[in-house]
From TrEMBL:
Record-annotated membrane-spanning stretches: none
Protein name: GST N-terminal domain-containing protein
Top-level taxonomic group: Eukaryota
InterPro entries: Glutathione-S-Trfase_C_sf, Glutathione_S-Trfase_N, GST_UstS-like_C, Thioredoxin-like_sf
Domain GST N-terminal: 8-99
Amino acid sequence: MTITFYDIPSTNPGRACSPNTFKARYTLNFKGIPYVTEWVEFPDIEPLCKKLGIPLTSKNAEGSDYYSLPAIYDPSTGVYLSDSLVIAEYLEKTYPGTPQVFPDNTIALQLSFVSAFYGNIGAIWDFITPAACAKLNPRSIEYYRRTRKIWLGKEMEDVAPKGEAAVAQWAQFKNGLAKVDAWYAKNGGEGPFLLGKTPSWGDITVASCLILFRIVWGKDSEEWKDISSWNEGRWAGILEALKSYEIVV
C-alpha cells in the first residue's frame, strides 16, 4: 500500500524545498517505500492536521499548538504521524526489511551529531530565511512573513545581515561547517558519509539543509559555489552521493 506524504510546495521546478520535509523524503526514497506526495500550503497545514487527526509537532512560545510538516499517512496501519524524526523511527520499526537510517543501533549517536550540527550552522538561517520565503507560493508567503515577524521580531527584509555584519556572519557559518567537516574526516576516508560508505540519519539531515541552500540560491549562485567549494568539496559531495534519493514523487 502507498503512503501519503504531506509536503510544502514552492515555486522550485521540483516543488520540494523544506529541509524538514526533505528529511522524510530522503528517508522514504532511501528505504524504497512507495508513497505519493500531497502538497499543502503553509496556512492549510493546521486545518488539515486537525481534520485528519495528525498530531501536533510542538507548542508555540505562548503555549498554543503548533502543527507542521512533514506528515505521513500509512494505510497499512491506519497511522498518521508528523515530525521527520518520529516518521523515520516509525518507518524503521514498521518496515525492518528496508535499509536502516539508524544502523547498528546508532540512534543516540545520530541524534547527538544532528544536535551538534545544527549548533554549528546557526549563522546561516538569517541568510537563507528571506531567500526561502521568496520561493514560496503567494498564499504561503503571506503566512510565512506574518508568522516569522512574530517569531523573529522583524520584517523579512530586515532578517538578512548586511555589510560587515554579513561578512562576519558568513565567516561564522563557514567556520561552523569546518568543525562538522572535521567530524566527517574521522570516518577514515572510506566514503562520503559519517559511517563511511553507509548513509544514515546524520547524512540525511546534513543533505536536507544543503539541498535547501542549493535550491533556494541556485546551483550557479555565488552562495552555493562558495559552500560547495569548502572543505575539499565535502558538501556538494554529500548531495551527489545521495542524489538518487532526492527524487520528488
